[in-house]
Amino acid sequence: MTERIQLKVIDRRDFVLGASAVAALAAFLPLGAGRAEAKVSWQDAMKAVIGDAKPTMGKVALELPEIAENGNTVPFTVSVDSPMTGNDYVKAVHIFATGNPAPDVVSFFFTPASGKAKATSRMRLAKTQDVVAVAEMSNGKVYMGKRSVKVTIGGCGG
Fold first, then answer.
1. Which of 70, 64, 79, 86 has its CA nearest to residue 155?
2. Mean pLDDT score, 55-70
3. Could you give the CA distance from residue 134 to residue 55 in angstroms, rounded to a whole number?
4. What's the Cα-to-Cα distance from 49 to each of 17, 33, 42, 105, 107, rounded to whole Å?
5. Chain-wide mean pLDDT for the chain?
6. What is the Cα–Cα distance from 129 to 151, expressed in whole angstroms?
7. Which pLDDT does position 36 carry in this prediction?
8. What structural domains does the chain harbor?
9. Quick count: other Cβ atoms within 10 Å of Cβ 149?
């Protein structure tokens, strides 16, 4: 025996009233309810990306202003000294801001077809801090570069 189910079609007014009630209730719920927020150190963020590999200083050039007048938009360029051949190339470069609430800033991925292991962008810095660039090579080696930036105003953390 088959049963027929009848669906009630609601009009636009009832839908808007119901959606408004849900939105009003959602405004009183705390953000991230049921989720534990733990502040992650930049070393933990780096370990999550490169594992137990030990970075060696060198081969990574990080260009940043010494003094950033506005921490909301700090320009940077990162490059890695590599021939970028099929056997020897940069797989990825990861940028970490040691004093930001979320220290992992960006990751750039390369192939031998990239030609150069170089990238330029902007980042937000919460306060005066070090910026660390970590390069993963195709042979498994990991290199690191570090620069200090003094932030005078603005930023992402106050």
1. 70
2. 95
3. 7
4. 46, 27, 11, 12, 9
5. 87
6. 8
7. 47
8. 42-151 (2.60.40.2470)
9. 22
Fill in the amino acid letter for 14.
D
- The single-letter code of the amino acid at 49 is V
Question: What's the 3-state SS for 74-111?
Answer: EEEEEEECCCCCCCCCEEEEEEEECCCCCCEEEEEECC
**Rounded CA separation 98/28 (Å):** 34
CA 40 to CA 119: how far, in whole Å?
25
Q: Which residues pair with 151 in a beta bridge?
A: 68
Comparing C-alpha atoms, which of 121, 113, 65 is closest to residue 95?
Answer: 121
- The CB density around residue 34, as the number of other CB atoms within 10 Å, is 6
For the residues 128-137, what does the mean pLDDT come to? Answer: 97
pLDDT at 9 over 50: yes
- pTM check: above 0.85: no
* Alpha carbon distance 53, 84 (integer Å): 21
- 19-39 pLDDT, tens digit each: 777 776 666 666 544 444 567
